[in-house]
Design a protein that fits this description.
alpha+beta, extended, single chain, 28 helices, BirA Bifunctional Protein, domain 2, 9-stranded mixed beta sheet, 6-stranded antiparallel β-barrel
Amino acid sequence: MNARRLRRLFLDYFLSQGHAEYPPAPLVPVDVTGKLDETLLFTGAGMVQFKPFFRGLADPPSRRLVNSQRCVRAVDIEEVGNLSHLTFFEMLGNFSFGDYFKEEAIAYAWEFLFGGEWLGLDPARVCVTVFKEDDEAFDIWAARWSEAGFEPGTKIHRLGEDKNYWPANAFSEGPPGPCGPCSEIFFRTAPEAELVGEFNTDEEAGRWLEIWNLVFMQFEWKGRFKDPEAPHLGYVKEGMEPLPTKNIDTGSGLERTAAVLGGFASVYDTDVFQPIVERICSLASHTYGSDPAKDRVVRIIADHMRTASMCIMDGILPSNTGRGYVLRRLMRRAILKGERALGLRDEFLPRVFPAVIEALGDPYVELSERKPVIEATLQGEEELFRRTLRQGMDRFAELAPEGGVFSGEDAFFLYDTLGFPLEVTQELAEERGIEVDVEGFQRCMKEAQERSRAAQGGGNVFGDEDEILLVASKHASSVTPFVGYDELTCRTEVVQVSPRFGSDGRTDGRLQLCLAVTPFYPEGGGQVGDTGTIRGERFAFVVEDTWREGAMIWHDCRIESVCAPEHNVGSADDLLGLSQDEIRPILETGVFFQPVLAEVDAQRRLHITRNHTATHLLHAALRTTLGEHVTQAGSLVAPDRLRFDFTHPEAVSQESLAEIERSINEQVAAAHAVVVEESVLLAQARERGAMMLFGEKYGERVRVVGIPGISLELCGGCHVRFTSEIGLFKIVSEGSSASGVRRIEAVTGLGAYEWVASREALLRETAALLKTPAQDVPTAVERLQQQIRQLKKAAERAASAGAIDVQPVPLDGVTLFPALMNDLDAAAARRLVDELAEKAPAAVAVVVAQSDDRVTILCRATPESVSKGAHAGEVVRAAAEAVGGKGGGKPEFAQGGGKDPSRARDALEAAEAALRAQVGA
């Protein structure tokens, strides 16, 4: 029985038992409410999406469900390639939400495994395990085994929570979430005579293979709290609470069960692996079974290819963090092993992918539908890694000691400078019999992160150590309240001032200052800092940038005017070129510590808010059009444009860009309200599905910006009140920003109008040059392009023909240059005949150009050849008659033609005969 048949049989059995089939979740762990499970990197079990059902937070469509769930578990990667361990697998599962419990779950498993119309396994080769304290499950199994004629004590094994609680050790350690005791079903893969009699020993030796796990989901782990009244229960009373209902969550590995049914020694022998294994062997010219070490590498690559393909299918792309990092690590591990063990030196992952479709395309039709994206991602990542690999392996060989330990500093150098993964360094070191100083690597990593934080810490206030710094403060302050969401003008006061110094150590006419409160938005979240003015009674500053340093907001100002006669300062120029000692007294007397009017450039801020709200609309439209894999990878929100970087493996088509642009402008025209919610609990925002930047650190409370039904994001930026204020949205470019990251630039409002107007002006100018109406420009350009193509072809043919066919014929003082051409238009023929006539002083050039249904004839005679009797008109007339046509002209130039291309060469011979007669040759 192949895996496809097994999958269908499992679903059909539980459908016959009153279950409803439920679609699988993607590998990105999203539950049935659409909420991302932040506790997991991947969907690793069938129950992940059903957590709201287990917790009673949502109502299932049926109290009995069944499905086949794709899963990724990236633990114990080193075990991949043995007979059963996989990173990607399918889990067949049946679920009950408050309907049936242990008795029925065990009965269903028994009937499906041993029933003749279902799998029909031999019960003699099966045993089960139960949680050591779960007497109920033991008794239910015991009754079944006794009825079947087996001694229960030989068929049921009691194990601890590390083996028979789900998740493992959840009884005492968590993690938070639904949990419960479980009962696992094993199939004996070795002859009975090989068993040593101790289950754990036999199972670890691979003599027993787990094929099904029945989890009796009845608790939710809340935390580590002991019950002082019942210490023997451990972490139960407060740490673990009963779920609203007793539930069933089972999982049976498709690949393992298919291997058992097929009598295979390995899951890699099943139909969901064999096409991939065969393809890898073919590329490597390896005969499977001839070399155990190479066979294992083939299996590792096959596993990693399945995982990578399915991850990319579900929108996960290679990156240096989270899910993307796991994907990148698996792909690079496959590439490294393929090159070093099998000699696969060219990009081979994309060439293996068609075999993945063959193995998994039923039921995963998305593999075929998303084939271009998956292949492009595989290709791009392999190209990138091979460049890294070549450099890294060369440097590793130089740095590796003969024995002992590969230093953490060198490992970090390979990682930081060449992008060489630590895991690859460890594998190379293992091959040489040496170890890597991982602690040293981590220490270097931490130091680098601290240096990075220090380097990025502070705008221009606390620059390089050598920079001359002087900060004067009116009073101690560590926070600047921001009031700019609601006010663009406010009365405040200057509380800190720091003059800017040039490289010569003297003031450059600029100040950086902090206000008691400010309406100026500091650069952050992709949005640029505000500009404007700060005016006091004795000075005026132009604010040219704003940024945040910790909780303080700093304003970079150009001094426009200042009046401090007590310091002999009457203008901004008087504060130029001062030393630190000269400027200090002016600062310390408090000239600048005065009440001020701070005013943001309102028009500029309006343009920024339009672009920021448009960025949210763009993000939503990209996810709708391209897929849920799209996530923000960076942005710039400026007054004149917006830039949005997002994860996507290939260029966005013009059709998709047009669809995205149209969708956004429809939302703009709909005048949706932009709803801003302050101080929302982060957990609540997550539950509502708010988009957030991966890796961004958020506080307990966040600011949420939403456009109902369209977009919901955590955002601290400035936005319009209604989408209609955006006015117009126009995409101006799309391109690559980095591997797997695309970039869109766009304009809005007046900027969009000006962009469109400039293109209309170009269109009008182009139409005028083409002497055609604007709407006909594409047709006119196409016509010109066609003419250019024809001319290029003609020129190429002319050059070729000139070198081959045009042989000069001397005729008693006159030289004939005859040329026979194919598909040469009139203009090209005219140029050719002129060029040939320049080859000799007394030249006569004749060009006969033939096409499918016509012959064109041209003749050019130089003045010297005419003086010797040549007459172009008579030459053309004779030639034209030979092809059933006519022609004639002046002695110097003539043209004609005919309708019989088959006699084109006769025309050329007639021309030569006529010229011979004229010159008496």
